[in-house]
Amino acid sequence: MKTIFIVIGKTTDQRMASLTDEYIQRIQHYMPFEMQVIPELRNAKNLSQEQQKEQEAELLKKSLQSGDYIVLLDEHGKERRSMEFASWIEKRMAASPRRLVFVVGGPYGFAPQIHKMAQEKVSLSQMTFSHQMIRLLFVEQIYRALTILHNEPYHHE
């Protein structure tokens, strides 16, 4: 199973990008993993929120494949503790989807068509984080889950 993390827009903070890349390399020690960056919309200031979500949805759909298990990172998704998330990852891996795809939406969230395509929604917190920060937080949690599954001394509980 390959895990894909799809995000919209580049990270402008190089320190944040560097830390995110470090965790991605760590994850790749355990599983095939890649982050795909979809370019930000041009002239987004001239679009309504709904138009932005619809245009982002069209770009997102180009990165998705038939058979993908799609999980949206969404504030209304299910929250899990790290141990629960590790168990959830293990179950997804055992179910053997060809690709497990996590998606972070644009600044206004997801278009309805993307919500309909998703099998699940996951929330990292009830708090709101910047799109740049959420990348780092999420890849760290994937790494943490994998070290839990391999009984490595990264997570303490």
State the main characteristics.
globular; 157 residues; single chain; 5-stranded parallel sheet
Structure explained in plain terms:
- The chain is α/β, with parallel strands linked by helices.
- The protein has one domain: SPOUT methyltransferase, trefoil knot domain (Alpha/beta knot), CATH 3.40.1280.10.
- Helix content is 44%, strand content 20%.
- It is globular and about 50 Å long.
Short note summarizing the structure:
With 157 residues, the chain is of the alpha/beta class. The protein is built from 5 helices and 5 strands.
Strand tally is 5
Write down the Rg.
Answer: 15 Å
Taking the alpha carbons of the first and last residues, their distance comes to 28 Å
Q: Give the strand content.
A: 15-25%
CATH class: Alpha Beta
Series of secondary-structure elements, N-terminal to C-terminal: EHEHEHEHEH
Helix and strand content put the structural class at: alpha/beta
What number of domains? 1
Using the coordinates shown, work out and report the CATH topology.
Alpha/beta knot
Query: What is the CATH homology-level superfamily?
Result: SPOUT methyltransferase, trefoil knot domain
Report the total helices.
5
**Which regions contain 5 or more consecutive residues with pLDDT less than 50?**
none
Q: Rough shape?
A: globular
For the biggest β-sheet, the strand order reads: 2-1-4-3-5
Mean pLDDT: 93
Helix content: 40-55%
Just name the CATH architecture.
Answer: 3-Layer(aba) Sandwich
